[in-house]
């Protein structure tokens, strides 16, 4: 008895479809986290009236419609922003014009640490370019990350923040909080 030869013939469209299905099912996509910002908790009616932020604890970072950057009341180049924010948040010389610091006991550390009450208020114009906005966001986050690295290296034997365990990172986040407040875009003018 003669054997029949089995031939698998399919169109190239079918083969391409099968390959596409295979790659879609086996490929993992990177998770996009976006910009991380923490909204303040909803205050009680009693505490909402009593809460006042000391003016020295806030630095206003503005970007106008011409993409000019202002930190505090001075115009500056974006390359200087990170150092200005680090100096503002750390207040190493206890300057009375820079943010207050308070001792806090953080679970996981065996001593109290000084925590800055500094808040960065980011304001931009409706005409601000996306590139300028993201560049300023990156510099603000870099400043906080460098302060976190410095703290973690002091407290955890020379290890940088991203090399720490999740529990240790939580401790550092409490000691060096990322308090960035974003205002709704408005027309600030070209100033």
SSE layout:
Blueprint: H1 12-26, H2 45-50, E1 58-63, E2 69-71, E3 74-76, H3 81-90, E4 101-105, E5 112-116, E6 119-124, H4 130-155, H5 166-175, E7 180-182
Helix pairs in contact: 3-4
Task: Give the helix level as a range of percent.
Answer: 25-40%
Provide the CATH top-level class of the domain at 53-145: Alpha Beta
Measured between the Cα atoms of the first and last residue, the distance is 94 Å
Please state the oligomeric state of the protein chains shown: single chain
Keywords:
single chain, flat, alpha/beta, 7 strands, Nucleotidyltransferase, domain 5, 35% helix, 5 helices, 191 residues, 16% strand
Structure description:
With 191 residues, the chain is α/β, with parallel strands linked by helices. The model has no long low-confidence stretch (mean pLDDT 83). Strand 1 and strand 2 form a beta hairpin. The chain has five helices and seven strands. It has a domain at 53-145: Nucleotidyltransferase, domain 5. Helix 3 (81-90) crosses helix 4. Strands 3-2-1-6-7 form a five-stranded mixed β-sheet, with helices on one face. Strands 4-5 form a two-stranded antiparallel ribbon. Helix content is 35%, strand content 16%. It has helices at residues 12-26, 45-50, 81-90, 130-155, 166-175; strands at 58-63, 69-71, 74-76, 101-105, 112-116, 119-124, 180-182.
